[in-house]
Amino acid sequence: MIAVHLKELKFHAHHGLYAGEDKTGGPFEVNLSVYYEPAGPITSIGQTINYVALFEIVKQRMMQKSSLIETVAQDICDTIKTRFPVIMEIKVEIDKCSPPIENFQGKTGITLHKTF
Question: What is the mean pLDDT of the chain?
Answer without folding.
Answer: 94
